[in-house]
Amino acid sequence: MAQTSTPTHADKRPTAVELIGVEKRFSGGVHALGPIDLAIGRGEFVCLVGPSGCGKSTALRMVAGLATPTAGTVRSGGHQKGQPASEAGYVFQEPTLLPWSRVWDNVYLPLRLRGVSRSEARPAVERVLAQVGLEDFAKAYPRQLSGGMKMRASIARALVGEPSLLLMDEPFAALDEQTRFRLNNDLLHLWQEGRWTVIFVTHSVYEAVYLAERIVVMAARPGRVLAEIAVDAPAVRDESFRRSVRYDELCRKVSEVLLEAAR
Amino acid sequence: MEKQLVTLPNAPLPFVDRLAVRIAAPVIVAALALGGWEAYVRIAETPSYILPAPTKIVQTLWSDRAELSAAWIVTLKTMFSALGLAVAGGVVMAVLFSASRLLEISLFPPAVVLQVTPLIAIAPLLSVWLGDQPWLVLLLCAFIVAFFPILSNTVAGLQSVDHGHRDLMRLYGASPLQRLWMLQIPSMLPYFLTGLKVAANLALVGAIVAEFAVGAGGKQTGLASTILESGFRLEVPRMFAALALVSFTGVAVYFLIHALSTWLLSPWHDSAVRRDT
């Protein structure tokens, strides 16, 4: 059964990411987030769900080291305070591909910045391009790709450094529904193979239930955690899960928590 | 998965977009204008010291080719040296501005003052200071006018870097130099090239105007002096010949930079891509 409240992961995985009393206030005085506590196990797929302004993206940026908490501690793997987590891959809301670089060079970028030569990087770049199905588009420029393909390239770029942690900030929000469903399935498939830790931010309850092992439901003003809901569904999911009774129940459950908070 | 790259349209181009039409239309207009001019001069028997016929100007271009080309080369040298200096100075200064806000707020106002003061008012002062080196006065004048568009466009370009791309560079630990080379310079390129187009034209204007204002004293004189001298002697066909060379230079440089800009930007930038609507 789905469980509400504190994390009681059945499997006692070692912690990969931990937020302890984390709070974020912007210089304008806006209380964006927290204090929140959150622990994410190694290899776990967690979705942060909530309305705009609930601080879910802010939390993700803090885990990546792109933002610093006003109070509290963020621990993630080996990353030092204030330093970007080098072993994390990050997928932004926009594909953020460099328009003047071909797909191959865009995917190569994280390795290039790390000082890896092109020839050394070739196997890794070609492997991730194949994983996301873009092997035939290595030489294309981003503007020649569809929205879905741009996002695939962006995911390939996040995976090329073999991260242990994948941070995704509403990556599929701008895509049409068919493309989003397909990318959901592809992402799950990649995760089955790679088993990295995933923190996936979305405002879509349906997407969260489809993807996550555990859903962290958040509310706004100030951003806080309302509930954590374990998704006790088969680890290997496909379109049949989307049509199952279990899926409906879980969606309803998450929606109810969100509605409750909005009242 | 999605496939198929965006393909170029196979449908016939609209009439006005066909290359032949785009070349033929202005050529026809120019031919009509020149023909009308020629006819008017011949029928009205206008003396060539008032208005020379186009054929007379072409004749002069050929018969005076030695003096004209010498003067042309002087003007070209002034123009391109000034443009080179403006590009180097403008880009370096813009990069420094992007690195230091203090530098920007202290040095931008003087640059603006220099820009808004008419060149023709500065030129006599420069020639008082540097009277013994008139070529340096010309160079400085052309540089002053060409510098600002490069600086301001490059500054705007460096500031226009996408926030997501900035985050990307931070996330993967780019050094300041890597960020400059891989992100800021390509981001500012479209802006820089727009500035370059304006600056090249202004460098030509600067080189000509300064020579009018200062008078090129020395042995090496440019096209502006040719125009002035020919005017004193009422050699109007030669004035027109020199004028034609000035215009031709401006047009040629414009197209050169346009071609450079298309070559650099067409694979990726919207401004250089023709859209099928």
Automatic annotation (TrEMBL), chain A:
<feature type="domain" description="ABC transporter">
    <location>
        <begin position="17"/>
        <end position="247"/>
    </location>
</feature>
<dbReference type="Pfam" id="PF00005">
    <property type="entry name" value="ABC_tran"/>
</dbReference>
<keyword id="KW-0378">Hydrolase</keyword>
<keyword id="KW-0067">ATP-binding</keyword>
<dbReference type="InterPro" id="IPR003593">
    <property type="entry name" value="AAA+_ATPase"/>
</dbReference>
<dbReference type="InterPro" id="IPR027417">
    <property type="entry name" value="P-loop_NTPase"/>
</dbReference>
<dbReference type="GO" id="GO:0016887">
    <property type="term" value="F:ATP hydrolysis activity"/>
</dbReference>
<protein>
    <submittedName>
        <fullName>Bicarbonate transport ATP-binding protein CmpD</fullName>
        <ecNumber>3.6.3.-</ecNumber>
    </submittedName>
</protein>
<dbReference type="InterPro" id="IPR017871">
    <property type="entry name" value="ABC_transporter-like_CS"/>
</dbReference>
<dbReference type="GO" id="GO:0005524">
    <property type="term" value="F:ATP binding"/>
</dbReference>
<keyword id="KW-0813">Transport</keyword>
<keyword id="KW-0547">Nucleotide-binding</keyword>
<dbReference type="InterPro" id="IPR050166">
    <property type="entry name" value="ABC_transporter_ATP-bind"/>
</dbReference>
<dbReference type="InterPro" id="IPR003439">
    <property type="entry name" value="ABC_transporter-like_ATP-bd"/>
</dbReference>
Automatic annotation (TrEMBL), chain B:
<keyword id="KW-1003">Cell membrane</keyword>
<dbReference type="GO" id="GO:0005886">
    <property type="term" value="C:plasma membrane"/>
</dbReference>
<keyword id="KW-1133">Transmembrane helix</keyword>
<feature type="transmembrane region" description="Helical">
    <location>
        <begin position="199"/>
        <end position="218"/>
    </location>
</feature>
<protein>
    <submittedName>
        <fullName>Putative aliphatic sulfonates transport permease protein SsuC</fullName>
    </submittedName>
</protein>
<feature type="domain" description="ABC transmembrane type-1">
    <location>
        <begin position="72"/>
        <end position="261"/>
    </location>
</feature>
<keyword id="KW-0472">Membrane</keyword>
<feature type="transmembrane region" description="Helical">
    <location>
        <begin position="20"/>
        <end position="40"/>
    </location>
</feature>
<keyword id="KW-0813">Transport</keyword>
<dbReference type="InterPro" id="IPR000515">
    <property type="entry name" value="MetI-like"/>
</dbReference>
<dbReference type="InterPro" id="IPR035906">
    <property type="entry name" value="MetI-like_sf"/>
</dbReference>
<dbReference type="Pfam" id="PF00528">
    <property type="entry name" value="BPD_transp_1"/>
</dbReference>
<comment type="similarity">
    <text>Belongs to the binding-protein-dependent transport system permease family.</text>
</comment>
<feature type="transmembrane region" description="Helical">
    <location>
        <begin position="239"/>
        <end position="260"/>
    </location>
</feature>
<feature type="transmembrane region" description="Helical">
    <location>
        <begin position="135"/>
        <end position="156"/>
    </location>
</feature>
<feature type="transmembrane region" description="Helical">
    <location>
        <begin position="79"/>
        <end position="99"/>
    </location>
</feature>
<feature type="transmembrane region" description="Helical">
    <location>
        <begin position="111"/>
        <end position="129"/>
    </location>
</feature>
<dbReference type="GO" id="GO:0055085">
    <property type="term" value="P:transmembrane transport"/>
</dbReference>
<keyword id="KW-0812">Transmembrane</keyword>
